[in-house]
Design a protein that fits this description.
Blueprint (H helix, E strand, L loop, with lengths): L1 H53 L7 H22 L1
């Protein structure tokens, strides 16, 4: 029984474990890093670039924000009225 346990049952379990580790490493290097992490990192870089471009619009001047809001609403209403 000891020999059967050591040489057959444990060998099957160890082989399954080694296969699972190899599959996990392959998926990590072949799918997770380039695809999943690549997409997340790409989105993060896009958000950073957008933030770097938009940060100059943030002045802290509420009057400018209100004027921009007014102009935006006026443009929206104008486009809406032209299409109707």
């Amino acid at each position: 029984m000891y020999w059967t346990n050591q040489k057959i049952l444990d060998a099957v379990i160890n082989l399954a474990g080694a296969g699972a580790v190899a599959l996990g490493r392959g998926l990590y290097n072949g799918v997770d890093q380039p695809v999943i992490d690549g997409a997340v990192n790409g989105l993060a870089q896009g958000a950073e670039a957008a933030g770097n471009g938009l940060k100059f619009w943030q002045t802290g001047n509420v009057q400018i924000y209100a004027a921009g809001l007014f102009v935006g609403i006026a443009v929206f209403v104008g486009v809406f009225l032209i299409r109707s």
